[in-house]
Design goal:
It is built from twelve helices and 17 strands. With 378 residues, it is α/β, with parallel strands linked by helices. The chain has two domains: 2-145, Four Helix Bundle (Hemerythrin (Met), subunit A) (Up-down Bundle); 150-377, Translation initiation factor eif-2b, domain 2 (Rossmann fold), CATH 3.40.50.10470. The longest helix is centred in the middle third of the chain and has 37 residues, at 127-163. The structure holds 5-S-methyl-1-O-phosphono-5-thio-D-ribulose. It catalyses: 5-(methylsulfanyl)-alpha-D-ribose 1-phosphate = 5-(methylsulfanyl)-D-ribulose 1-phosphate. One of its GO terms (cellular component) is cytoplasm. Pfam families: IF-2B.
Amino acid sequence: MVMQTAPTLEAIRYKKGSLEILDQLLLPFATVFEQVKGVEDGHRVIKTMKVRGAPAIAIVAALSLAVELHSTALVGKLSTAPSIQEFVHSKLEYLKTSRPTAVNLFEAAGRLDGLVARAATVANATAQSVASAYIDAAEAMLQKDIEDNHNIGRFGTEYVLKHKPQTQAEVQVLTHCNTGSLATAGWGTALGIIRDLHASGNLAHAYCTETRPYNQGSRLTAYELVYENIPATLICDDMASALLARKPITAIIVGADRVAANGDTANKIGTYQLAITAQYHNVLFIVAAPSTSIDLLTASGKDIPIEERAAVEVVQIRGPSVQENASTTVQIAAPGIGVWNPAFDVTPASLISAIVTEKGVCVKKPGSDVFDLKDFLS
Ligand code: MRU
Protein backbone atom coordinates (compact mmCIF):
# COMPACT_ATOMS: atom_id res chain seq x y z
CA MET A 1 0.00 0.00 0.00
CA VAL A 2 1.19 3.53 -0.86
CA MET A 3 0.07 6.24 1.60
CA GLN A 4 -0.48 9.58 -0.08
CA THR A 5 -2.68 12.65 0.02
CA ALA A 6 -4.29 13.17 -3.38
CA PRO A 7 -3.33 16.56 -4.91
CA THR A 8 -6.43 16.42 -7.15
CA LEU A 9 -9.47 14.21 -6.68
CA GLU A 10 -8.81 11.05 -8.65
CA ALA A 11 -9.69 7.44 -7.99
CA ILE A 12 -7.50 5.81 -10.63
CA ARG A 13 -3.77 6.45 -11.10
CA TYR A 14 -2.26 4.72 -14.09
CA LYS A 15 0.99 4.79 -15.94
CA LYS A 16 2.20 1.97 -18.16
CA GLY A 17 2.77 -1.10 -16.01
CA SER A 18 1.42 0.51 -12.83
CA LEU A 19 -2.15 0.93 -11.54
CA GLU A 20 -3.23 2.38 -8.20
CA ILE A 21 -6.77 2.87 -6.97
CA LEU A 22 -8.07 5.07 -4.18
CA ASP A 23 -9.58 2.78 -1.53
CA GLN A 24 -13.14 4.15 -1.35
CA LEU A 25 -13.96 2.03 1.70
CA LEU A 26 -11.70 4.35 3.69
CA LEU A 27 -13.11 7.66 2.40
CA PRO A 28 -13.64 10.25 3.77
CA PHE A 29 -11.55 9.24 6.77
CA ALA A 30 -8.31 8.40 4.97
CA THR A 31 -6.79 8.78 1.51
CA VAL A 32 -5.01 5.54 0.76
CA PHE A 33 -4.00 4.34 -2.69
CA GLU A 34 -3.66 0.62 -3.23
CA GLN A 35 -1.62 -1.01 -5.97
CA VAL A 36 -3.44 -3.25 -8.42
CA LYS A 37 -0.80 -5.62 -9.71
CA GLY A 38 -2.99 -7.66 -12.03
CA VAL A 39 -6.35 -9.26 -12.66
CA GLU A 40 -6.65 -10.98 -9.25
CA ASP A 41 -6.24 -7.60 -7.54
CA GLY A 42 -8.56 -5.93 -10.06
CA HIS A 43 -11.33 -8.45 -9.42
CA ARG A 44 -10.91 -8.12 -5.64
CA VAL A 45 -10.96 -4.30 -5.46
CA ILE A 46 -14.10 -4.21 -7.63
CA LYS A 47 -15.93 -6.96 -5.73
CA THR A 48 -15.14 -5.41 -2.34
CA MET A 49 -16.15 -1.96 -3.68
CA LYS A 50 -12.81 -0.33 -3.00
CA VAL A 51 -13.47 0.82 -6.57
CA ARG A 52 -17.08 1.35 -7.57
CA GLY A 53 -19.22 3.28 -10.04
CA ALA A 54 -20.01 1.81 -13.46
CA PRO A 55 -17.33 3.57 -15.57
CA ALA A 56 -14.59 3.16 -12.93
CA ILE A 57 -15.36 -0.56 -12.59
CA ALA A 58 -14.90 -1.09 -16.34
CA ILE A 59 -11.72 1.00 -16.52
CA VAL A 60 -10.03 -0.61 -13.51
CA ALA A 61 -10.93 -4.09 -14.76
CA ALA A 62 -9.46 -3.33 -18.20
CA LEU A 63 -6.32 -1.68 -16.79
CA SER A 64 -5.70 -4.49 -14.29
CA LEU A 65 -5.26 -6.81 -17.25
CA ALA A 66 -3.15 -4.21 -19.09
CA VAL A 67 -0.79 -4.14 -16.11
CA GLU A 68 -0.57 -7.92 -16.09
CA LEU A 69 0.07 -8.04 -19.84
CA HIS A 70 2.75 -5.39 -19.56
CA SER A 71 4.87 -7.74 -17.48
CA THR A 72 7.51 -8.95 -19.89
CA ALA A 73 7.69 -12.21 -17.95
CA LEU A 74 4.14 -13.00 -19.07
CA VAL A 75 4.65 -12.17 -22.73
CA GLY A 76 7.80 -14.28 -22.49
CA LYS A 77 5.79 -17.18 -21.09
CA LEU A 78 2.95 -16.85 -23.58
CA SER A 79 5.05 -16.58 -26.69
CA THR A 80 2.46 -16.71 -29.47
CA ALA A 81 -0.37 -14.45 -30.60
CA PRO A 82 -3.05 -17.17 -30.06
CA SER A 83 -1.78 -17.90 -26.52
CA ILE A 84 -2.06 -14.20 -25.59
CA GLN A 85 -5.53 -14.07 -27.15
CA GLU A 86 -6.66 -17.08 -25.11
CA PHE A 87 -5.12 -15.59 -21.97
CA VAL A 88 -6.91 -12.24 -22.48
CA HIS A 89 -10.20 -13.97 -23.16
CA SER A 90 -10.08 -16.08 -19.97
CA LYS A 91 -9.02 -13.11 -17.81
CA LEU A 92 -11.84 -10.93 -19.18
CA GLU A 93 -14.33 -13.73 -18.48
CA TYR A 94 -13.07 -13.83 -14.91
CA LEU A 95 -13.27 -10.03 -14.47
CA LYS A 96 -16.91 -10.17 -15.63
CA THR A 97 -17.75 -12.23 -12.54
CA SER A 98 -16.81 -9.39 -10.16
CA ARG A 99 -20.10 -7.42 -10.20
CA PRO A 100 -23.16 -8.18 -12.37
CA THR A 101 -25.26 -5.03 -12.82
CA ALA A 102 -23.12 -2.27 -14.39
CA VAL A 103 -23.02 -3.11 -18.10
CA ASN A 104 -19.93 -0.96 -18.77
CA LEU A 105 -17.71 -3.83 -17.57
CA PHE A 106 -19.38 -6.25 -19.99
CA GLU A 107 -19.26 -3.75 -22.84
CA ALA A 108 -15.53 -3.13 -22.28
CA ALA A 109 -14.76 -6.84 -21.94
CA GLY A 110 -16.65 -7.69 -25.14
CA ARG A 111 -15.02 -4.85 -27.08
CA LEU A 112 -11.48 -5.65 -25.87
CA ASP A 113 -11.99 -9.37 -26.48
CA GLY A 114 -13.05 -8.68 -30.09
CA LEU A 115 -10.18 -6.25 -30.64
CA VAL A 116 -7.64 -8.82 -29.41
CA ALA A 117 -9.19 -11.56 -31.55
CA ARG A 118 -8.75 -9.33 -34.60
CA ALA A 119 -5.19 -8.35 -33.60
CA ALA A 120 -4.25 -12.03 -33.23
CA THR A 121 -5.36 -12.93 -36.73
CA VAL A 122 -3.57 -10.20 -38.71
CA ALA A 123 -0.57 -11.33 -40.73
CA ASN A 124 2.68 -11.38 -38.70
CA ALA A 125 0.81 -11.07 -35.38
CA THR A 126 3.11 -11.71 -32.41
CA ALA A 127 2.50 -12.10 -28.70
CA GLN A 128 3.89 -8.59 -28.25
CA SER A 129 1.72 -7.00 -30.96
CA VAL A 130 -1.45 -8.58 -29.53
CA ALA A 131 -0.55 -7.54 -25.97
CA SER A 132 0.20 -3.99 -27.17
CA ALA A 133 -3.13 -3.76 -29.02
CA TYR A 134 -4.93 -4.66 -25.79
CA ILE A 135 -2.88 -2.28 -23.63
CA ASP A 136 -3.37 0.67 -26.02
CA ALA A 137 -7.14 0.12 -26.11
CA ALA A 138 -7.42 -0.23 -22.32
CA GLU A 139 -5.36 2.92 -21.78
CA ALA A 140 -7.54 4.86 -24.24
CA MET A 141 -10.55 4.27 -21.97
CA LEU A 142 -9.22 6.75 -19.38
CA GLN A 143 -9.10 9.76 -21.70
CA LYS A 144 -12.31 8.79 -23.51
CA ASP A 145 -14.23 8.61 -20.23
CA ILE A 146 -13.11 12.09 -19.17
CA GLU A 147 -14.07 13.50 -22.59
CA ASP A 148 -17.45 11.75 -22.45
CA ASN A 149 -18.10 13.15 -18.98
CA HIS A 150 -17.41 16.72 -20.10
CA ASN A 151 -19.84 16.28 -22.99
CA ILE A 152 -22.46 14.82 -20.62
CA GLY A 153 -21.92 17.85 -18.38
CA ARG A 154 -22.41 20.24 -21.27
CA PHE A 155 -25.50 18.52 -22.71
CA GLY A 156 -27.01 18.05 -19.24
CA THR A 157 -26.50 21.70 -18.31
CA GLU A 158 -28.15 22.84 -21.54
CA TYR A 159 -31.11 20.51 -20.94
CA VAL A 160 -31.64 21.63 -17.33
CA LEU A 161 -31.43 25.33 -18.19
CA LYS A 162 -33.83 24.91 -21.13
CA HIS A 163 -36.42 23.03 -19.07
CA LYS A 164 -36.19 24.78 -15.70
CA PRO A 165 -39.19 26.83 -14.55
CA GLN A 166 -38.93 30.44 -15.76
CA THR A 167 -39.38 31.55 -12.16
CA GLN A 168 -36.02 30.05 -11.15
CA ALA A 169 -32.98 32.20 -11.97
CA GLU A 170 -30.56 29.54 -10.73
CA VAL A 171 -31.25 25.87 -10.24
CA GLN A 172 -31.28 23.58 -7.21
CA VAL A 173 -30.69 19.89 -7.76
CA LEU A 174 -30.74 16.64 -5.84
CA THR A 175 -28.45 13.71 -6.64
CA HIS A 176 -28.14 10.15 -5.37
CA CYS A 177 -25.20 7.80 -4.85
CA ASN A 178 -21.82 8.92 -6.21
CA THR A 179 -21.30 9.65 -9.89
CA GLY A 180 -18.33 12.01 -9.73
CA SER A 181 -14.57 11.82 -10.15
CA LEU A 182 -14.50 8.86 -7.78
CA ALA A 183 -16.89 6.80 -9.93
CA THR A 184 -15.24 7.59 -13.27
CA ALA A 185 -11.87 8.46 -14.77
CA GLY A 186 -12.60 12.07 -13.77
CA TRP A 187 -15.27 14.84 -13.62
CA GLY A 188 -18.28 12.52 -13.45
CA THR A 189 -21.67 11.96 -15.07
CA ALA A 190 -24.63 13.21 -12.97
CA LEU A 191 -22.19 14.96 -10.65
CA GLY A 192 -20.40 16.21 -13.76
CA ILE A 193 -23.59 18.04 -14.78
CA ILE A 194 -23.81 19.52 -11.27
CA ARG A 195 -20.17 20.63 -11.49
CA ASP A 196 -20.87 22.14 -14.91
CA LEU A 197 -23.97 23.97 -13.59
CA HIS A 198 -21.84 25.31 -10.75
CA ALA A 199 -18.91 26.29 -12.98
CA SER A 200 -21.26 28.16 -15.34
CA GLY A 201 -22.81 30.12 -12.46
CA ASN A 202 -26.23 28.47 -12.76
CA LEU A 203 -26.30 26.39 -9.56
CA ALA A 204 -27.87 27.83 -6.44
CA HIS A 205 -27.58 24.66 -4.38
CA ALA A 206 -26.99 20.90 -4.62
CA TYR A 207 -28.46 18.30 -2.29
CA CYS A 208 -27.13 14.78 -2.00
CA THR A 209 -28.70 11.76 -0.38
CA GLU A 210 -26.88 9.66 2.15
CA THR A 211 -27.41 6.55 -0.05
CA ARG A 212 -27.71 3.78 2.47
CA PRO A 213 -26.40 1.20 3.00
CA TYR A 214 -22.97 1.85 1.50
CA ASN A 215 -23.28 5.64 1.98
CA GLN A 216 -21.82 6.65 -1.36
CA GLY A 217 -23.68 9.96 -0.90
CA SER A 218 -22.60 10.94 2.60
CA ARG A 219 -19.07 9.54 2.29
CA LEU A 220 -18.16 10.14 -1.36
CA THR A 221 -20.47 12.69 -3.02
CA ALA A 222 -20.44 14.93 0.05
CA TYR A 223 -16.65 14.64 0.02
CA GLU A 224 -16.49 15.67 -3.65
CA LEU A 225 -18.93 18.58 -3.16
CA VAL A 226 -16.95 19.92 -0.20
CA TYR A 227 -13.69 19.37 -2.09
CA GLU A 228 -15.07 21.41 -5.03
CA ASN A 229 -16.57 24.16 -2.83
CA ILE A 230 -20.01 23.55 -4.34
CA PRO A 231 -22.81 24.86 -2.08
CA ALA A 232 -24.36 21.62 -0.92
CA THR A 233 -26.44 19.92 1.76
CA LEU A 234 -26.66 16.28 2.77
CA ILE A 235 -30.03 14.66 3.44
CA CYS A 236 -30.98 11.17 4.62
CA ASP A 237 -32.62 9.02 1.96
CA ASP A 238 -36.02 9.27 3.64
CA MET A 239 -36.00 13.10 3.45
CA ALA A 240 -36.20 13.35 -0.35
CA SER A 241 -40.00 13.78 -0.64
CA ALA A 242 -39.97 16.35 2.16
CA LEU A 243 -37.21 18.22 0.32
CA LEU A 244 -39.21 18.31 -2.91
CA ALA A 245 -42.32 19.42 -1.03
CA ARG A 246 -40.52 22.25 0.76
CA LYS A 247 -37.76 23.54 -1.58
CA PRO A 248 -37.80 24.67 -5.22
CA ILE A 249 -35.82 21.72 -6.58
CA THR A 250 -35.39 21.95 -10.36
CA ALA A 251 -34.18 18.45 -11.10
CA ILE A 252 -33.10 15.14 -9.64
CA ILE A 253 -30.01 14.02 -11.55
CA VAL A 254 -28.70 10.45 -11.17
CA GLY A 255 -26.30 8.10 -12.92
CA ALA A 256 -26.92 4.64 -14.34
CA ASP A 257 -25.44 1.18 -14.13
CA ARG A 258 -27.41 -0.22 -17.04
CA VAL A 259 -30.00 1.40 -19.29
CA ALA A 260 -32.19 -1.07 -21.18
CA ALA A 261 -33.13 -0.43 -24.83
CA ASN A 262 -36.48 1.08 -23.74
CA GLY A 263 -34.85 3.43 -21.20
CA ASP A 264 -35.66 1.48 -18.02
CA THR A 265 -32.64 2.29 -15.85
CA ALA A 266 -30.86 0.27 -13.18
CA ASN A 267 -29.08 2.54 -10.73
CA LYS A 268 -28.23 2.60 -7.04
CA ILE A 269 -30.97 1.32 -4.75
CA GLY A 270 -33.26 4.22 -3.87
CA THR A 271 -33.24 5.76 -7.34
CA TYR A 272 -36.72 4.37 -8.15
CA GLN A 273 -38.35 6.03 -5.16
CA LEU A 274 -36.70 9.33 -6.10
CA ALA A 275 -38.20 9.06 -9.61
CA ILE A 276 -41.65 8.45 -8.14
CA THR A 277 -41.40 11.48 -5.89
CA ALA A 278 -40.04 13.58 -8.77
CA GLN A 279 -43.10 12.76 -10.87
CA TYR A 280 -45.46 13.48 -7.96
CA HIS A 281 -43.82 16.88 -7.42
CA ASN A 282 -43.48 17.67 -11.15
CA VAL A 283 -39.67 17.84 -10.94
CA LEU A 284 -37.36 16.86 -13.83
CA PHE A 285 -35.82 13.40 -13.39
CA ILE A 286 -32.62 13.09 -15.42
CA VAL A 287 -30.41 10.04 -15.98
CA ALA A 288 -26.83 10.87 -16.99
CA ALA A 289 -24.56 8.13 -18.34
CA PRO A 290 -22.05 7.39 -21.07
CA SER A 291 -23.47 5.45 -24.02
CA THR A 292 -21.48 2.43 -22.77
CA SER A 293 -24.10 2.19 -19.99
CA ILE A 294 -26.81 1.56 -22.60
CA ASP A 295 -27.48 -2.13 -23.17
CA LEU A 296 -29.42 -2.51 -26.41
CA LEU A 297 -29.41 -6.30 -25.95
CA THR A 298 -31.59 -5.92 -22.85
CA ALA A 299 -35.08 -4.98 -23.96
CA SER A 300 -36.46 -3.75 -20.63
CA GLY A 301 -35.59 -3.35 -16.98
CA LYS A 302 -37.06 -6.69 -15.93
CA ASP A 303 -34.13 -8.43 -17.67
CA ILE A 304 -31.41 -6.46 -15.85
CA PRO A 305 -29.51 -8.60 -13.31
CA ILE A 306 -29.64 -6.96 -9.89
CA GLU A 307 -26.74 -7.59 -7.53
CA GLU A 308 -27.65 -8.55 -3.98
CA ARG A 309 -24.95 -7.88 -1.43
CA ALA A 310 -24.12 -9.15 2.03
CA ALA A 311 -26.35 -8.42 5.06
CA VAL A 312 -23.36 -7.03 6.89
CA GLU A 313 -23.52 -3.82 4.79
CA VAL A 314 -26.98 -3.08 6.22
CA VAL A 315 -26.55 -4.11 9.86
CA GLN A 316 -23.16 -2.43 10.31
CA ILE A 317 -21.87 1.08 9.59
CA ARG A 318 -18.32 2.02 8.87
CA GLY A 319 -16.44 4.76 10.69
CA PRO A 320 -12.90 5.96 11.29
CA SER A 321 -10.65 3.70 13.28
CA VAL A 322 -8.36 4.80 16.11
CA GLN A 323 -5.68 3.28 13.96
CA GLU A 324 -4.56 5.87 11.38
CA ASN A 325 -5.67 5.26 7.77
CA ALA A 326 -8.08 2.50 8.62
CA SER A 327 -11.79 2.16 9.26
CA THR A 328 -13.86 0.17 11.67
CA THR A 329 -17.44 -1.09 11.73
CA VAL A 330 -20.20 -0.73 14.32
CA GLN A 331 -23.33 -2.92 14.58
CA ILE A 332 -26.47 -0.76 14.25
CA ALA A 333 -29.24 -3.36 13.84
CA ALA A 334 -30.69 -5.93 16.21
CA PRO A 335 -28.53 -9.07 15.95
CA GLY A 336 -30.47 -11.91 14.31
CA ILE A 337 -32.75 -9.76 12.11
CA GLY A 338 -33.16 -10.89 8.49
CA VAL A 339 -31.84 -8.56 5.77
CA TRP A 340 -32.54 -7.97 2.05
CA ASN A 341 -29.81 -5.93 0.41
CA PRO A 342 -30.31 -5.33 -3.33
CA ALA A 343 -27.59 -2.93 -4.49
CA PHE A 344 -29.67 -1.50 -7.36
CA ASP A 345 -33.26 -0.92 -8.43
CA VAL A 346 -34.86 -0.29 -11.80
CA THR A 347 -36.58 3.00 -12.59
CA PRO A 348 -39.19 2.59 -15.34
CA ALA A 349 -38.63 4.73 -18.44
CA SER A 350 -42.03 6.35 -17.90
CA LEU A 351 -40.65 8.18 -14.84
CA ILE A 352 -37.52 9.51 -16.60
CA SER A 353 -37.58 12.95 -18.28
CA ALA A 354 -34.35 12.58 -20.27
CA ILE A 355 -31.28 10.37 -20.68
CA VAL A 356 -28.15 12.49 -21.12
CA THR A 357 -25.16 10.86 -22.82
CA GLU A 358 -21.95 12.12 -24.43
CA LYS A 359 -23.76 11.90 -27.78
CA GLY A 360 -26.60 14.19 -26.74
CA VAL A 361 -29.93 14.06 -24.89
CA CYS A 362 -32.47 11.32 -25.57
CA VAL A 363 -36.13 12.09 -24.81
CA LYS A 364 -39.31 10.10 -25.39
CA LYS A 365 -41.37 10.67 -28.53
CA PRO A 366 -44.62 12.56 -27.77
CA GLY A 367 -47.22 10.17 -26.36
CA SER A 368 -44.69 7.40 -25.68
CA ASP A 369 -43.84 6.01 -22.25
CA VAL A 370 -40.49 4.58 -23.36
CA PHE A 371 -37.27 5.72 -25.01
CA ASP A 372 -36.04 4.43 -28.36
CA LEU A 373 -32.35 4.14 -27.55
CA LYS A 374 -31.60 1.98 -30.58
CA ASP A 375 -32.78 4.83 -32.80
CA PHE A 376 -30.92 7.39 -30.63
CA LEU A 377 -27.61 5.54 -30.92
CA SER A 378 -27.89 4.71 -34.62
O1 MRU B 1 -22.58 0.13 -6.06
P1 MRU B 1 -21.92 1.27 -6.78
O2 MRU B 1 -21.37 2.31 -5.85
O3 MRU B 1 -20.92 0.81 -7.80
O4 MRU B 1 -23.12 1.98 -7.57
C1 MRU B 1 -22.84 3.13 -8.29
C2 MRU B 1 -24.04 3.71 -8.94
O5 MRU B 1 -25.14 3.22 -8.82
C3 MRU B 1 -23.80 4.89 -9.82
O6 MRU B 1 -24.91 5.75 -9.82
C4 MRU B 1 -23.53 4.42 -11.26
O7 MRU B 1 -22.60 3.39 -11.29
C5 MRU B 1 -23.05 5.53 -12.12
S1 MRU B 1 -21.42 6.08 -11.69
C6 MRU B 1 -21.01 7.27 -12.83
